[in-house]
Amino acid sequence: MAERATLAAGTSPVAVADRVHSAAIHLLRAVRRVDAGVGVGPAKLSALSVLVFGGPRSIAALARAEQVRLPTMSRLVQALERDGLATRTADPADRRASRVHPTALGRSVLRRGRARRVEFLARRLASLPQADREVLSRAAELIEGLI
Amino acid sequence: MAERATLAAGTSPVAVADRVHSAAIHLLRAVRRVDAGVGVGPAKLSALSVLVFGGPRSIAALARAEQVRLPTMSRLVQALERDGLATRTADPADRRASRVHPTALGRSVLRRGRARRVEFLARRLASLPQADREVLSRAAELIEGLI
DNA sequence: TGGATTTAGTTAGCATTGCTAACTAAATTG
DNA sequence: CAATTTAGTTAGCAATGCTAACTAAATCCA
User: Fold this and answer.
1) Alpha-helical regions (H) of chain A
2) Which of residues 12-71 of B touch A (CB under 8 A)?
3) Which of A65, A89, B67, B120 lies at a 20 to 30 A Cα distance from B92?
4) Crossing angle of helices A13-35 and A42-54, rounded to 10°
5) Considering only CA atoms, which of A98, A31, A9 is closest in space to residue B24?
6) Are B137 and A8 in contact (CB under 8 A)?
């Protein structure tokens, strides 16, 4: 019984956490299929997005922004470079570090890849009443603020 | 300009899609760290959750529920069985199919694993006003309905 | 009825994306 | 200046996705 209560509908922190958690899993599984046609992969796309919309930065800073470890980001940046989506320049102030920049190709691929996922969602959102979209918008802000 | 508009705040389908998409990515990256201590992994935990809360079913039905391909779910179920978290019985009505059931151990592991993730979120949600939790709850329902 | 198609499941093999351990080299600190 | 911290790499492993190719059972239809 106690464990059933965990999943019961309601607005207790635990009940809401469970529903939000499930919704996030299902949402990302659904959009993952859309990525297939881009040929870049979600981790690379997401790192590229940080570079394009947040500006060039070091691998360590990218790793922190993406919440992954340094070796993981090191490998992702190598792949981005190999694919011509990003370049590295020496950091004049710190000879250990390098700065990662998106290339023009990187910007264009990001735009296309992001557009695919977002359009997939947007098509579905378009059928909702405006008030529901406002709820989703506010919810996204709340989530970003929490973590 | 046109591409900047994609990221501008607003409640157009595209703007909301973008924010919801990012929020889902960041949410799951944050809870992923919590999984580490469970030793089961999110895909197995999620499949187990379907079995426990939705009832026993075939591998194909599980794959559909989890939005993965049949070979992926076949391998996940083999791992669940190997770990003693689920068992398979023959389907009397269809000799190709088998029914997957959670074991008592599976139920208990699910409870613990889920609890970790959900508690991680719930601790943060507890600091929100009730109205905000209602927004998140409603948003989760909307997302599940869309996909 | 019987051949064709669909569906359930497996195996094999590959790609992506996480991780830790162990290392080098540069920067910082006491 | 020695000790520690920080940036980055390499190597190797684990989890989880996929397609291709296959078997076997069920279903469809002419």
Assistant:
1) 2-7, 13-35, 42-54, 59-66, 70-82, 104-125, 130-146
2) 13-31, 33, 42, 46, 53, 66-68
3) B67
4) 100
5) A31
6) no
User: Cβ of B77 < 7 Å from strand C?
Assistant: yes
pTM of the model: 0.82
Residue type for position B25: I
Mark A69-103 as b/e (b = at least 16 C-beta within 10 Å).
Answer: eeeebeebbebbeebebbbbeeeeeeeeebbbebb
- Contacts with B140 from chain A: Cβ below 8 Å: 16, 19-20, 22-23, 139
Which of B67, B110, B133, B107 is closest to A20 using CA atoms?
A: B133
Residues 72-101 of A with CB under 8 A from B: none
- Which residue of chain A is at minimal alpha-carbon distance from B126? A13
- With beta carbons less than 8 A apart as the criterion, state whether A72 and A63 touch: yes
β-pairing, B86-90 with B98-102?
Answer: antiparallel
Residue B43 phi, psi (nearest 5): -70, -45
Contact A53, A106 (CB under 8 A): no
- Looking at residue B57, what DSSP letter applies? B
